[in-house]
Design brief:
With 252 residues, the chain is α+β, with helices and mostly antiparallel strands. A hairpin with a 7-residue loop joins strand 1 (53-54) and strand 2 (62-63). Helix content is 20%, strand content 38%. The strands form five sheets. Strands 3-8-9-6-7 form a five-stranded mixed beta sheet.
């Protein structure tokens, strides 16, 4: 915004020119803002619109930009690009969120904005909007290594979510949204292998029959110890076995 007094006006700058410039500026700025708003509307109208809609902030689907909380969304495509194998590894890319092993080694701890306890009961973890917690500790179940093969996207509130979800959401909320059957039936199979005799095999199957839809995901994962490293307790313990079966069904 430009202001001019009569003392500032000389032979080169007149009141008429200043008023004309101000009028042009007041006309150009709204046009530019309207063009930018139009570009944003066009972007949100693309296929990304579904990705940018979140449910975790209010319990109903809203645009990410309109969510009344600081929300991060990780899609299945983004997870695949990072090479993450489970939920904990996928969440490591979120700013302000730290993943670490618990005392018992097998259960990951989720610390948001520095709030940390031995079992992180202050972070609410849900699957398709349904709370997933171990009743005695009010935190994620023991050895909760949820595989990424069944995940469509992950929505995370990085901050208090108790206004919607109660006391268990003191420092944040993690909502895992799983894959559902699309318009056609198909089967997807995959496998991974790595060091420490690591092996993972999985299958995703979709079945669509008129009004009935079913989606099944099965994952089998195993890993052995690090035989080349020893501690005062013996060989470095890395062994674990995991089986995960997730079924979604819907009618009409």
């Amino acid at each position: 915004v430009f202001f001019a007094s009569e003392s500032m006006l000389d032979g080169h700058i007149t009141k008429k020119k200043v008023l004309t410039s101000a009028l042009l500026l007041s006309t150009i700025v709204p046009i530019a803002m309207a063009e930018e708003a139009g570009k944003l509307d066009a972007l949100l109208a693309m296929s990304l619109e579904e990705i940018l809609q979140v449910e975790v902030a209010t319990g109903t689907r809203v645009q990410l930009t309109e969510a009344p909380a600081i929300v991060s969304v990780i899609t299945a495509e983004e997870i695949a690009l990072t090479g993450a194998r489970n939920l904990a590894e996928a969440l490591e890319q979120i700013p302000g969120m730290h993943i670490m092993p618990s005392i018992n080694r097998l259960t990951p701890l989720f610390a948001i904005r520095g709030i940390f306890t031995d079992s992180t009961p202050q972070v609410l973890v849900m699957i398709d909007g349904v709370e997933t917690s171990e009743l005695t500790a009010l935190s994620v179940p023991y050895s909760f290594y949820y595989p990424i093969n069944a995940i469509d996207r992950i929505e995370v509130i990085r901050g208090p979510g108790s206004a919607v979800y109660g006391a268990d959401a003191l420092s944040g909320v993690i909502n895992i949204i799983t894959k559902t059957a699309d318009e056609s039936s198909d089967i997807e199979v995959g496998a991974r292998t790595g060091s420490f005799d690591y092996y993972e095999g999985w299958v995703n199957a979709n079945w669509v029959d008129d009004a009935f839809k079913a989606s099944l995901s099965v994952t089998r994962e195993s890993q052995n110890n690090d035989k080349d490293r020893t501690t005062q307790y013996g060989v470095m313990k890395r062994n674990r076995d995991m089986h995960n079966i997730h079924l979604n069904m819907s009618y009409n």
